[in-house]
C-alpha cells in the first residue's frame, strides 16, 4: 500500500488526482489487476466523474451544498456535520481495473479527491493488486 498526500486549499473542492494514480499504477509494474483507492478521513472522500468540462465538478459541489447546507439542525458539536454527510454521499473508496499497465477509465472519467472541510492535508491510500 502506498499513500498520496494532497494539500487542499479550499473549504470545499474536488481535486483531480488521476495523474498521481496513473503514475502510481505505472510504478507498481502491475500489468493486469485492480487498483484500490481509499480515503481514511471523515470529511473528505473520493469519486470518479468528468473533468473535461470543469463545470461538472462545479455542478456537483453546488448541488451537494444545496442538499446539505453548511448550517442546519445538526447535533454534532464540531460544526462540520455537512462535511461528514457529503463524505458519506460521495463515499470513501473506488475500485478501478488495471489492464496493460494502465487504469481502465472511460474517456471522460477522472478521479477526484473531494474536500469538504478544508483546507487540510489529506491522504489517499492506493493499492495495486496483480491478477494471476
Ligand atoms: Zn466533525
Query: What is bound: which ligands?
Result: zinc ion
- The beta-strand count equals 8
| Biggest beta-sheet profile | 5 strands, antiparallel
Residue runs with pLDDT of under 50 for 5 or more positions = none
Distance between the termini: 19 Å
In helices, the fraction of residues equals 25-40%
Mean pLDDT across residues: 97
Give the structural class: alpha+beta
Gyration radius, rounded: 16 Å
* Number of contiguous helices: 3
**Global geometry:** elongated
Give helix and strand order, one letter per element, not per position. EEHEEHHEEEE
Question: How much β-strand is present in the residues?
Answer: 35-45%
Strand order of the largest sheet: 1-8-3-5-6
